[in-house]
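Quick one, probably user error.
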């Protein structure tokens, strides 16, 4: 906790410059874990609010979907069945499920709906209307799908995925949602922790070049290990601001520039502070 608060105080850096780097690395891991826990908790809370609604909707509409959906077959990354366009709309939920074998009509179809799942000849696309009225479109290629067949059966769907076969019905939906509910937090925690660990270590190594430049300019004569210590703690102020921005959805134009400036500011002050201590001893 001392490191978290001290990272915002320039004179703090002269005290940590000479400490063993593994201690600084341990602090960075702790800081990243703290961030991962905060984001995982937020993500889990948000998802757990929507899971019951999604589960209830599926239980209510699964039989109807299964009775109306045509047989779907994807082979070697390409849609084989159906050969004709299929549209299923839920006007109350403002949502649509569409199968469009004609790839050329894909994006024209997307424009007609705010919330839609669209399967085309070679892609699976989703379009959602977000709370801020912006639209998000995601596209996934089918090239990795060797064999996929979806067939309607009584009270559900039969799915064949290469050599595996299973059914989707109310029982399996309820079981899957129970498992997902338990795994949301640990899985998101692992993913976010690994992602932040990778990005922060890359940033630390990349910005060590800037630390070397500052070190030469102010003639601090600090060792590379000391520069890494300072650089590690200098990540805290801009990263904290980034966390606050993301948690509360605060729009900050060109935020990466602000992030960079804050980091370089603390890096330069930290090196200067450590240099003054070196000069005084």
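Nope, works fine. Designed sequence:
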């Amino acid at each position: 906790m001392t490191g978290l608060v001290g990272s915002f105080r320039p004179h703090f850096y002269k005290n940590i410059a000479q400490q063993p780097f593994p201690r600084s690395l341990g602090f960075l891991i702790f800081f990243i874990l703290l961030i991962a826990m905060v984001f995982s908790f937020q993500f889990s809370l948000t998802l757990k609010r929507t899971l019951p609604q999604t589960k209830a909707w599926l239980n209510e509409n699964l039989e109807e979907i299964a009775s109306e959906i045509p047989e779907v077959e994807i082979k070697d990354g390409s849609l084989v069945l159906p050969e004709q366009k299929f549209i299923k709309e839920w006007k109350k939920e403002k949502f649509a499920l569409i199968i469009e074998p004609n790839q050329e009509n894909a994006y024209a179809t997307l424009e007609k709906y705010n919330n839609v799942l669209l399967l085309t000849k070679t892609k699976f696309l989703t379009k959602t209307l977000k709370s801020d009225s912006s639209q998000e479109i995601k596209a996934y290629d089918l090239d990795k799908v060797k064999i996929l067949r979806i067939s309607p059966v009584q009270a559900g769907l039969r799915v064949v995925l290469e050599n595996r076969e299973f059914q989707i019905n109310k029982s399996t939906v309820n079981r899957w949602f129970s498992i997902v509910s338990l795994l949301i937090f640990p899985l998101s925690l692992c993913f976010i922790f690994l992602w932040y660990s990778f990005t922060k270590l890359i940033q630390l190594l990349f910005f060590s070049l800037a630390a070397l430049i500052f070190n030469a300019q102010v003639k601090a004569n600090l060792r590379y290990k000391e520069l890494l210590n300072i650089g590690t703690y200098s990540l805290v102020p801009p990263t904290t601001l980034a966390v606050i921005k993301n948690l509360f959805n605060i729009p900050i134009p060109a935020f990466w520039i602000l992030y960079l400036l804050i980091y370089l500011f603390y890096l330069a002050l930290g090196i200067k502070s450590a240099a003054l201590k070196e000069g005084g001893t």
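The two ends are 28 Å apart (CA to CA).
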